[in-house]
Amino acid sequence: MKAYIFFLLALLSFTDARHFSYKAREQWLAQETIPSNYDKRFRPPPVSGQENGPVQVNISMYIQELSICSYRQQLIVGGYFRQFWVDPRLAMTEVEDKDETILTLGDMFVDTPIWIPDTFVVNSKNGLVSEDAPETKGRSFLRVKADGSVLGSTRFRSKLICPMSKKDTEVTCSFQVESFGAKATDISYAWKDFEADSMVVSDQAIKLLKNNGWKLIESTPVNDHVELDIGKYSKVSLNFKLEKFEGEEEETESDDL
Fold first, then answer.
1. pLDDT in 10s for each residue of the chain, 257 residues
2. What pLDDT is attached to residue 12?
3. How does strand 214-228 pair with strand 199-201?
4. What is the C-alpha separation between 75 and 84, in angstroms, rounded?
5. HEC string of the chain?
6. What is the rounded distance in angstroms from the CA atom of residue 152 to the CA atom of residue 147?
7. How far is CA 158 from CA 76, 124, 167, 189, in A?
8. CA distance 179 to 182
9. How far apart are CA 76 and CA 10, in angstroms?
């Protein structure tokens, strides 16, 4: 099977580009890789050896932008948002190297042929972490490995609601992620490698925040859940504790905020 996949890739690379667009090649390879009885409407079954339970979705972030605006009571967070899960239906037992990438798909929220979690940012003014947001259009991909593990990565920029006033010198803003429709019995979220590098704030983001008149005191990842009238939902949060530089004023509000 491994040789067959390489043959398909080689065949495509020599095919006249006029007959195969990138999207067409991607769709054709997906058809050859994904089982014919695969149904993306249903969440992945339990991983072999585990009892029936929710799909475990692990989260990591690389933050490249932080900007606060007390006038609009919001914190802008931008960077890369990554989700990891396992879909045993996509596993290729005949491939020896289970860490080998067998399929890569672009635009993970547009006509995706495999199941993806319906993740969204709860307190974001501009809605879902998805291709619906202009800032993330065409900036995502899915990568499937031979063991059925899936990585979904997207470039995001969320405007988070964060109650504050211009007089505040210290605030805590939160980036909160849940499933839009799946309860905790179906999807369970957690920070990937919770004690390691599941969340990284770049020097660039720190500098942008400093230029805005603020500094980051700490960022704390939290695995949690929320109880609603319709049920219990899994949730992960990233809490930013921010402090205004003494005597500093925020930059004038712009349309970018």
1. 555 554 444 544 544 444 446 566 666 667 778 888 999 999 998 876 666 889 999 999 999 999 998 888 999 999 999 999 999 999 988 877 878 888 888 877 677 889 999 999 999 987 655 545 555 556 888 999 999 999 999 888 899 999 988 888 899 999 999 999 999 999 999 999 766 667 889 999 999 999 989 999 999 999 998 888 888 999 999 999 999 987 555 554 444 55
2. 47
3. unpaired
4. 26
5. CHHHHHHHHHHHHCCCCCCCCHHHHHHHHHHHHCCCCCCCCCCCCCCCCCCCCCEEEEEEEEEEEEEEECCCCEEEEEEEEEEEEECHHHCCCCCCCCCCEEEEEECCCCCCCCCCCCEEECCECCCECCCCCHHHCCCEEEEEECCCEEEEEEEEEEEEECCCCCCCCEEEEEEEEEECCCCCCCEEEEECCCCCCCEEECHHHHHHHHHCCEEEEEEEEEEEEEEECCEEEEEEEEEEEEEECCCCCCCCCCCCC
6. 15
7. 6, 6, 24, 19
8. 6
9. 43
| 65 and 77 Cβ atoms separated by less than 8 Å | yes
CATH fold of 53-244 reads Acetylcholine Binding Protein; Chain: A, (2.70.170)
Structure-token pair, residue 182: 């799946």
